[in-house]
């Protein structure tokens, strides 16, 4: 178990007042030099993850479709260099290059001097305390557009343990991360299995009902298959009215609605509430009570029931609003979330990649389905909610545990790299092999793990 160092000295830094005896405080310009090298179009593309640092981008199987142009303008990063996103280093978009590669022109690449372990400094730079310092040294017109240029980065002070201690800290933290990663993987596998069970319960209930196996009839639709003979086969827009008269936000500029907090529904319909006085003109207003089906990545089943609200609700134009008229809203939501419908919409979506597909709104509203009467819909909804409640609770608990593991890991990293814990006598367990593949499991769960690239090429180099 790590313990404090035997003795400490004042550092002169507010974010790390005491440092171990033998450590130094040096400005980054004494530790790194600026690398600005272009004209290497044959090198692989590197990307910066907010969680795992720099990694080689998978251009074939990656989550994001990327069209590269003008690669000769991209900057070369040599293995061991540190690269950071000028606009998002304050969020942790920084790390050592695992191999020679290319980064966006708007990234900064720095070369470590002798005796500088870039992995240690990558850990240091991603601590909450250091990222707050990044904000102080960044410059920009508005806060969320601030940039940390090289000329400012080199002035920032950093904690510098002796070279041997840097290496030991890195070895300890990589092993600590690995153990955390294994736990996260187990939790993610549990979430996957529980989610499959939830989907199976929904799929069977909305296709065949609940209780005894019903008599079936052929639907004459290949992807739908047989359906209960007493259910009505019809298009969705016969039970769900497409909301066609959507008001563009631009036409409401200056009205009193902007003086209030307006619920904002994102592209995935997650219902986050935000206070907004300047909303993009492509957003739409809805009245509340609509079923909102996302056009994006239909295989994920992003469906949201909007709540009634005294003010209009801002709705992303990537959501398709449908107003239930001859069906229960909850039943319709389960229909669009069931595996059969998700696979049908995904098969007819427009895109080259599964994770960046978009389905035609007309396909969503005109999809054919078999609908039971309202009373049976109510029974099905109640059954699904009762059966899935403990499973959904278990999924949320597993997600909370993942967040807790990450918080504990981040806290341990911060304590070690700032000298609060002494790991110089720590020895690795022979049964703890460390691979880059293991460490990538600490990546974020969503598709936006990697930072968006700015390509204006302005890196403020001297």
Outline the fold blueprint:
Layout: E1 8-10, E2 18-20, E3 24-27, E4 32-34, E5 46-49, E6 53-56, E7 75-77, E8 82-85, E9 94-96, E10 101-103, E11 107-112, H1 118-125, H2 128-137, H3 150-153, E12 157-160, H4 163-208, E13 216-218, E14 226-228, E15 232-235, E16 240-242, E17 247-248, E18 261-265, E19 273-275, E20 284-286, E21 291-294, E22 303-305, E23 313-315, E24 319-324, H5 329-337, H6 339-347, H7 361-366, E25 368-371, H8 374-417, H9 436-439
Helix pairs in contact: 4-5, 4-8
Structure commentary:
It is a single chain. It is built from nine helices and 25 strands. The chain has 462 residues and is an alpha+beta fold. The strands form nine sheets. Strands 17-20-23-18-19 form a five-stranded mixed beta sheet, with no helix packed on it. The protein is elongated. Residues 62-67, 248-265, 269-281, 441-449 and 452-462 have low confidence and may be disordered.
How would you describe this structure in keywords?
five-stranded mixed beta sheet, elongated, 19% strand, 9 helices, alpha+beta, 462 residues, Adenine-n6-DNA-methyltransferase TaqI, Chain A, domain 2, four-stranded antiparallel beta sheet
């Amino acid at each position: 178990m790590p313990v404090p160092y035997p003795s400490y000295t004042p550092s002169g830094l507010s974010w790390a007042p005491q440092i171990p005896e033998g450590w130094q405080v040096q400005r980054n310009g004494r530790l790194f030099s600026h690398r600005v090298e272009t004209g290497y179009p044959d090198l692989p593309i590197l990307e910066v993850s907010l969680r795992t640092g720099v990694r080689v981008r998978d251009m074939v199987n990656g989550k994001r479709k990327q069209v590269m142009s003008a690669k000769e303008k991209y900057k070369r990063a040599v293995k061991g260099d540190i690269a950071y996103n000028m606009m998002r280093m304050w969020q942790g978009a920084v790390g050592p290059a695992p191999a020679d590669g290319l980064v966006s022109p708007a990234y900064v690449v720095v070369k470590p001097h002798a005796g500088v372990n870039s992995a240690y400094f990558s850990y240091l730079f991603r601590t909450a305390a250091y990222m707050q310092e990044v904000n102080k040294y960044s410059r920009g017109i508005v806060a969320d557009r601030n940039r940390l240029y090289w000329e400012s980065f080199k002035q920032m002070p950093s904690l510098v343990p002796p070279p041997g201690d840097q290496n030991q800290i890195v070895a300890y933290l990589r092993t600590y991360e690995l153990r955390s990663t294994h736990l996260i993987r187990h939790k993610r596998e549990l979430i996957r299995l529980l989610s499959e069970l939830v989907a199976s319960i929904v799929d069977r209930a909305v296709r065949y009902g609940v209780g005894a196996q019903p008599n079936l009839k052929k639907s004459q639709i290949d992807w739908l298959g047989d359906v209960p003979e007493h259910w009505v086969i019809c298009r969705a827009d016969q039970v769900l009215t497409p909301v066609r008269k959507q008001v563009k936000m631009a036409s409401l500029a200056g009205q009193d609605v902007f003086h209030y907090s307006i619920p904002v529904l994102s592209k995935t319909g997650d219902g986050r509430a935000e206070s907004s006085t300047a909303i993009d003109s492509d957003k739409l207003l809805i009245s509340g009570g609509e079923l909102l089906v996302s056009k994006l990545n239909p295989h994920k089943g992003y469906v949201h029931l909007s709540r009634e609200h005294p003010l209009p609700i801002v709705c992303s134009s990537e959501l398709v609003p449908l107003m239930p008229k001859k069906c229960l809203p909850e039943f319709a939501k389960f229909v669009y979330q069931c595996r059969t419908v998700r696979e049908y919409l995904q098969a007819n979506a427009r895109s080259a990649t599964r994770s960046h597909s978009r389905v035609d709104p007309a396909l969503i509203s005109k999809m054919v389905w078999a609908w039971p009467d309202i009373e049976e819909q109510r029974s099905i909804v109640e059954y699904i909610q009762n059966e899935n409640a403990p499973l959904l609770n278990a999924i949320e608990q597993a997600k909370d545990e993942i967040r807790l593991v990450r918080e504990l890991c981040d806290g341990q990293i911060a304590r070690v790299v700032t000298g609060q814990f002494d790991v110089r006598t720590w020895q690795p367990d022979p049964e703890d092999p460390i691979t880059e593949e293991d460490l990538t499991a600490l990546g974020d769960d969503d598709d936006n793990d990697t930072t968006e690239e700015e390509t204006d090429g302005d890196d403020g180099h001297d």
